[in-house]
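Predict the structure of Small ribosomal subunit protein uS10.
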Amino acid sequence: MPKGRIRIKLKSYDYRLIDDTCQKLVDTAVRTGASVLGPIPLPTKTEVFVVTKASFGDKDAREQFGLKTHKRLIDILNPTNQTIDSLMHLELAAGVEVEVKM
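Done. Here is the predicted structure for Small ribosomal subunit protein uS10.
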């Protein structure tokens, strides 16, 4: 039986996808007998892109586009072999980046 913890970091542009994925991970871990801390919301990174509307002329005519990256953190404490196996075979949504550290 492995000791320690599994730390899972999730990133996504859509907060609904990341919340659904977090719920799947937490349900799987609790069902297999591990204790879970999280999901902990990390600060959202916002990127703003400014584009001029015209190729020349009025520089005050601009458009702004934004891109938000939502992040979550989940710690699974005292995972069992069944927990690790079920997390490996879990189907997750496309569009969610998952980073796992043991």
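Residues 56 and 62 are 12 Å apart (CA to CA).
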